[in-house]
UniProtKB/TrEMBL annotation:
The name this protein goes by in its record: TNF receptor superfamily member 6b
Disulfide bonds: C75-C90, C97-C115
Domain of life according to the entry: Eukaryota
Family annotation (SMART domains): TNFR (SM00208)
Signal peptide: 1-32
Length: 305
């Protein structure tokens, strides 16, 4: 058990007499040495003495006598005293770091062990909680620290964040014209601007494997998957593409961004399954999903006029 600091015993003489005596004895010694003192009654002579306290990292090994000063001993391993004291033994380093903590300061003779939350966690109400990631469309403004959660902010115009992250800031949209490419899909807070080298390609007459066909099919997939549509409309398109005869996997429920990525993967798999059939299958699915506006945009952008 940790030792408690010793208090002076009840006086055997009137309080004002003992107080005056201790002050008179302690003042010259404390003023001359700068050391802190404490009252001690000699067990042999029964007289009251003013003994020097021991500095941090030590304890009172032997109290002072009339003819000898206090003897201080160094704290043994895994023990400490943080302040000037008159303890009979050093305190035990009793702080143990938890599962999500790391040692910020080791146990040393002058202080107890100190812990902090490991990287990726922060302290809250006595627990280490994981830093929350900023969702797609928001970027990190202040990274999380051992004492503070991640600070997020929605991406402003011209910037985006495409995934959940506890470290990434909003990034500027790609400049397609500077890269010598055409803008396929404008950037949004949750995805980058999508560029393409496919311009005016008539998918209705293209032969599978024809020059530029693969690039234009990729552009078509991105154009559809990253439209600014509601979750419900994307879900209708998802089911229309899967078809009643071959229902696809249950779509994700995390949100629209996740569904867009799944829809893009679904379209890529359709393209790989049957060369040259993507465009026709997609147009039928758009009609079944009751998305006439998007169907017109696809025809105007990728179909022969």
């Amino acid at each position: 058990m940790c030792a408690r600091e010793r208090r002076a015993p009840p006086p055997l003489t009137p309080p004002w007499t003992l107080s005056a005596l201790l002050l008179a004895l302690a003042a010259p010694w404390a003023a001359g040495t700068g050391a802190l003192t404490y009252p001690w009654r000699d067990v042999e002579t029964r007289e009251w003495l003013v003994c020097s306290q021991c500095p941090p990292g030590t304890f009172v090994q032997q109290p002072c006598r009339r003819d000898s000063p206090t003897t201080c001993g160094a704290c043994p391993p895994r023990h400490y005293t943080q302040f000037w004291n008159y303890l009979e033994r050093c305190r035990y380093c009793n702080v143990i770091c938890g599962e999500r903590e790391e040692e910020a300061r080791p146990c040393e003779p002058t202080h107890n062990r100190a812990c902090r939350c490991r990287p990726g966690f922060f302290a809250h109400a006595g627990f280490c909680l994981e830093h929350e990631p900023c969702p797609p469309g928001s970027g990190v403004t202040v990274p999380g620290t051992p004492s503070q959660n991640t600070q997020c902010q929605p991406c402003g115009p011209g910037t985006f964040s495409a995934r959940s992250s506890s470290s990434e800031r909003c990034q500027p949209h790609r400049n397609c014209s500077a890269l010598g490419l055409a803008l396929n899909v404008p950037g949004s807070p949750s995805h980058d601007a999508l560029c393409t080298s496919c311009v005016g390609f008539p998918l209705s007459t293209a032969e599978p494997g024809a020059p530029g066909a693969e690039e234009c099919e990729r552009a078509l997939i991105d154009f559809v998957a990253f439209q600014d549509l509601s979750f419900k409309r994307f879900l209708r398109l998802w089911h229309a593409l899967a078809g009643p005869e071959a229902p696809g996997p249950v779509p994700p429920r995390e949100g629209r961004v996740e569904l867009q990525l799944k829809l893009r993967q679904q379209l890529l798999e359709l393209r790989e399954a049957r060369a040259g059939a993507l465009a026709g299958r997609l147009l039928r699915a758009l009609r079944e999903a009751r998305l006439p506006g998007l169907e017109r945009s696809v025809r105007a952008r990728f179909w022969a006029h």
